[in-house]
């Protein structure tokens, strides 16, 4: 099965659905003309379809492995990574002063979607490297930037994020890794980190670890954490990989999917590190990495969904069981719903990326707030759609979907990590109803205003659709106001369904915009979304309204199955 | 992680929620007293928890394999199967004349749930053997019954179902396997079958294949198909396994899950077979096997859901991230919703089994219609809940859920086959809105009448809950009438969401009954279901109402991502 990068679908969303043209009109991103945009998407699409997609199955079948303390990547991955690096794709949105291309994050995310649809396990490496580049650009000293950024941007070296420890997952502040000041201005890092994606490999000549650790005088919790650059090989005087640092890859995890991505247990044993940013302020730098990565993970969901759906449609168009199954009403329902959800999730992710670009180009708080508000929705909805569509792909294949040979199951196994890493979708939802509503609902209301205004504008040609979107937007506004009247634990009990409802309303909004601007096929797809997917926002909100009290009324024993009390 | 069989939960449903007491009052099942019921559940629970559950991980890690043309089962599986056989569990509901115990199907399904929660891959063997026993009891000659049934009931031999061929999955009528009459009254069977669960193994001394094939004068389609008994070893004069039949195990499939269950490609090469039932009427016998197996697969979903949920609750009660995560509102929401869905799915399955028992005990058409109506709902909802709860289990584990070591991912991988085999859930839904409404909606309306009457009866103590169940039942009645006004293709376009809506209303009904009869914990759980899960029936029905026209308006090209037209 060949993956065909969805270049035209993305172009349409950029030019007709979201506010990417605003990004192009800024001074900062003036180079990102329509022609450049188109050329970049086409080029990345070629790379994804022709170079990366053929690596997807082999990485699943021949996982990365640990040999003599070093990770050997899956067959062909070194060549695949080299192709990504040589194309300049890693530094696409990075600062040109250090070898980046300075193009919009929107384009970068579009490219990321295509790469992850082609080969998720490999794409994780550039994704995390980009996160590190972001953190260094914003927080590192000039010296660190000059040394590391060019090599990260070029793909000569790769970057990792080291947050998690056995006792510190979602609770990052519980970490126990220690940092000690050394007289030469460097630090010594000691501790164990787990779930380190691409924590080691032979696809780059150095692996740069961004490691969270606590200095002796660091406060407990997240406020006493610092961030360090801890490279696998210490750079020599020429900035080339020199002496090996005191870092061990303890083991690789055996995972449900993304077998081609080595997930490492790392041990830092008095390893040499350099401070990134200020002492005790590591969480700020980490959040820079994580915000970018969160949107990137949402985009991964969209990428896998696109790939799984393409395969399912192709299969359904060939498989004959009392006629081609693509014509069976229920199979068509599954495929059409999936296609409509992929469009919605992609639009949300790209709209979020454009808000980031506008924030960077203008510095306006309004754009920053929009980006911050959309990020958890993009992450959670994008990854849920990733899993749901991959699941649909398996179902459409029938019994063949359960056989590994077809690859349908791999999409589901691969996608299943995305609602978990970079903050579980539950944490995204808590972020949305907590921090992201802490502005008094300002960002939410501005977004809803746009949705309502657009629905009014569409009221002529698409009366039936716009009416339903307008009603949903109005209900969502009331639900948002009601959510803000609750205390945090109450909000958290309804956070996930609230986020999902918001995502469906947003998805319907972008579908309506597509119907206004696009072809008859866009109108037909909008109709599917608005009549089949959007209505679920009402039951999401019913769940969001149901009280926390109801959940706490159930004992732990009853959850486990003991109803005697 | 230890699986604790949910004996008390099942007992409560049997004694207070569904109409099992009616079954116990019949002459046929008079032996199934409360004491016997309790003793059997306790004994089966012990077997499941102590003997079968320890085999679950090892079967995943060491799959069944093909050696010299014979299948070697996973380590310990032969002993596990022997324990099932020795306990008399295979023939629990079978005819005592041939070595069965003659107990209710309801009890059999309760036992099946516990065995599949403990070790799904192994439990498939007795499940399919029971399906074959059913088919033989109803359709086979006295000679075949006398020869095969005692050995199948005792677990000395096992049974398989051979329907699927490469070009004939859901479309069974497309099969090409040939049968030829032989002068001695036997038949010669030639053809290839795929997806044959437990198609061979070393856990029994013979494997009895029920094979669908077409005689030379058989009509095209399903009406020209006959069913044959084709044993691996031809029974000798004493009825012991003799000469090997001309059957080859071509290969085993590499699957997403249930690794311990050998899924075989079988080749029949002029193999000797005996006719089961009448020539050309094999589909009737096959449906007997399949109906039992369909409910059995729904029950498998419940079993895996229970096991996955137990593990998730245990993990959440130990995992500390800013307090035990079981106390985090969103984790509690996931666990409580899952527990409520497990209760609903289990009740639907056991109610379906009880209707089968009543049909057998009384012969009344009303019970037959009830069983037929509930079977597709039990299969589809049970298996969807199986996947959904296993998925929740992964999510609750966070990053650890993606690591194979914890076993959470295995539940999801194992459960994922259940919405596919024995007729995909899409086919179940088509059966529901097609054949099962062909009685003019009689069976549906009787069921809805019960739901409405019960809601009225509950109106005192549980006014808020009963009101919502009543309303949902009333809406479901209207939706059912509306469904019947459509032609078949229109029905099929909304079949799956219609089935899901019906399942949620049924689930709410059984929760309401539990709230009326049970402890405070049952009331609390009913509240979770009725306020968080039930409301989704409304959006299901919105989707069910959306027209087929909308789906056919989208071109195949647009489904694949090309919107140019």
Automatic annotation (TrEMBL), chains A, B:
<keyword id="KW-0285">Flavoprotein</keyword>
<dbReference type="Pfam" id="PF02770">
    <property type="entry name" value="Acyl-CoA_dh_M"/>
</dbReference>
<comment type="similarity">
    <text>Belongs to the acyl-CoA dehydrogenase family.</text>
</comment>
<dbReference type="InterPro" id="IPR006091">
    <property type="entry name" value="Acyl-CoA_Oxase/DH_mid-dom"/>
</dbReference>
<keyword id="KW-0560">Oxidoreductase</keyword>
<dbReference type="Pfam" id="PF12806">
    <property type="entry name" value="Acyl-CoA_dh_C"/>
</dbReference>
<keyword id="KW-0274">FAD</keyword>
<dbReference type="InterPro" id="IPR037069">
    <property type="entry name" value="AcylCoA_DH/ox_N_sf"/>
</dbReference>
<feature type="domain" description="Acyl-CoA dehydrogenase/oxidase C-terminal">
    <location>
        <begin position="281"/>
        <end position="432"/>
    </location>
</feature>
<dbReference type="InterPro" id="IPR025878">
    <property type="entry name" value="Acyl-CoA_dh-like_C_dom"/>
</dbReference>
<comment type="function">
    <text>Involved in the assimilation of dimethylsulphoniopropionate (DMSP), an important compound in the fixation of carbon in marine phytoplankton, by mediating the conversion of 3-(methylthio)propanoyl-CoA (MMPA-CoA) to 3-(methylthio)acryloyl-CoA (MTA-CoA).</text>
</comment>
<feature type="domain" description="Acetyl-CoA dehydrogenase-like C-terminal">
    <location>
        <begin position="450"/>
        <end position="554"/>
    </location>
</feature>
<dbReference type="InterPro" id="IPR052166">
    <property type="entry name" value="Diverse_Acyl-CoA_DH"/>
</dbReference>
<dbReference type="InterPro" id="IPR009075">
    <property type="entry name" value="AcylCo_DH/oxidase_C"/>
</dbReference>
<dbReference type="InterPro" id="IPR009100">
    <property type="entry name" value="AcylCoA_DH/oxidase_NM_dom_sf"/>
</dbReference>
<feature type="domain" description="Acyl-CoA dehydrogenase/oxidase N-terminal">
    <location>
        <begin position="78"/>
        <end position="156"/>
    </location>
</feature>
<dbReference type="InterPro" id="IPR046373">
    <property type="entry name" value="Acyl-CoA_Oxase/DH_mid-dom_sf"/>
</dbReference>
<protein>
    <recommendedName>
        <fullName>3-methylmercaptopropionyl-CoA dehydrogenase</fullName>
        <ecNumber>1.3.99.41</ecNumber>
    </recommendedName>
</protein>
<feature type="domain" description="Acyl-CoA oxidase/dehydrogenase middle">
    <location>
        <begin position="161"/>
        <end position="269"/>
    </location>
</feature>
<dbReference type="GO" id="GO:0050660">
    <property type="term" value="F:flavin adenine dinucleotide binding"/>
</dbReference>
<dbReference type="Pfam" id="PF00441">
    <property type="entry name" value="Acyl-CoA_dh_1"/>
</dbReference>
<dbReference type="InterPro" id="IPR036250">
    <property type="entry name" value="AcylCo_DH-like_C"/>
</dbReference>
<dbReference type="InterPro" id="IPR013786">
    <property type="entry name" value="AcylCoA_DH/ox_N"/>
</dbReference>
<dbReference type="Pfam" id="PF02771">
    <property type="entry name" value="Acyl-CoA_dh_N"/>
</dbReference>
<dbReference type="GO" id="GO:0016627">
    <property type="term" value="F:oxidoreductase activity, acting on the CH-CH group of donors"/>
</dbReference>
């Amino acid at each position: 099965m060949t993956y065909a990068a969805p270049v035209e679908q993305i172009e349409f969303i950029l030019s007709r659905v979201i506010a990417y043209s605003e990004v192009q009109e800024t001074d900062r991103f003036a180079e990102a003309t329509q022609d450049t945009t188109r050329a970049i998407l086409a080029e990345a699409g070629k790379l994804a379809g022709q170079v990366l997609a053929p690596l997807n199955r082999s990485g699943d079948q021949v996982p990365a492995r640990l040999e003599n303390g070093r990770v050997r990547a899956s067959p062909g991955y070194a060549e695949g990574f080299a192709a990504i690096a040589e194309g300049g794709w890693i530094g696409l949105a990075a600062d040109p002063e250090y070898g980046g291309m300075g193009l919009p994050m929107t384009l970068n995310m579009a490219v990321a979607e295509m790469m992850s649809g082609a080969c998720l396990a490999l794409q994780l490496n550039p994704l995390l490297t980009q996160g590190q580049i972001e953190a260094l650009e914003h927080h590192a000293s000039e010296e660190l930037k000059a040394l590391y950024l060019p090599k990260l941007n070029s793909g000569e070296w790769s970057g990792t994020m080291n947050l998690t420890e056995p006792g510190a997952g979602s609770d990052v502040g519980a970490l126990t890794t220690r940092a000690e000041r050394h007289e030469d201005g460097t630090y010594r890092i000691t501790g164990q980190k787990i779930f380190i994606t691409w924590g080691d490999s032979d696809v780059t000549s150095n692996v740069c670890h961004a490691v969270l650790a606590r200095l002796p005088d660091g406060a407990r919790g997240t406020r006493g954490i610092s961030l360090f650059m801890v490279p696998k090989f210490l750079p020599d005087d020429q900035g080339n990989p020199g002496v090996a640092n005191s870092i061990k890859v303890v083991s690789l995890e055996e995972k449900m999917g993304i077998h081609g991505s080595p997930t490492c247990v790392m041990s830092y044993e008095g390893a040499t590190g350099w401070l990134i940013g200020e002492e005790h302020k590591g969480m700020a730098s980490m959040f820079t990495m994580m915000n970018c990565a969160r949107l990137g993970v949402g985009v991964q969901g969209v990428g896998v969904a696109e790939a799984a759906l393409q395969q399912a449609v192709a299969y359904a168009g060939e498989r004959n069981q009392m006629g081609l199954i693509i014509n069976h009403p229920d199979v068509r329902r599954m495929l059409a719903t999936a296609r409509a959800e992929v469009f919605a999730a992609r639009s949300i992710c790209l709209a979020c990326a454009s808000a980031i670009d506008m924030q960077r180009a203008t510095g306006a708080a309004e754009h920053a707030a929009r980006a911050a508000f959309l990020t958890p929705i993009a992450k959670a909805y994008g990854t849920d759609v990733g899993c749901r569509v991959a699941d649909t792909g398996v179902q459409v294949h029938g019994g063949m979907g359960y056989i590994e040979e077809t690859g349908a199951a791999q999409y589901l196994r691969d996608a299943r990590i995305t609602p978990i890493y970079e903050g579980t979708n539950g944490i995204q939802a808590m972020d949305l109803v907590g921090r992201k509503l802490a502005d008094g609902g300002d960002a939410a209301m501005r977004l809803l205003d746009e949705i309502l205004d657009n629905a009014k504008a569409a009221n002529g040609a698409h009366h039936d659709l716009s009416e339903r979107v307008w009603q949903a937007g109005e209900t969502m506004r009331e639900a948002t106001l009601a959510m803000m009247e609750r205390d945090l634990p109450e909000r958290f009990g309804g956070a996930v369904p609230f986020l999902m409802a918001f995502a469906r309303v947003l998805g319907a909004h972008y579908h309506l915009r597509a119907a206004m601007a696009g072809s008859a096929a866009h109108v037909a797809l909008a109709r599917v979304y608005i009549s089949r997917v959007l209505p679920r926002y009402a039951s999401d909100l019913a769940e969001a309204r149901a009280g926390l009290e109801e959940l706490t009324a159930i004992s732990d024993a009853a959850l486990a199955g003991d109803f005697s009390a």
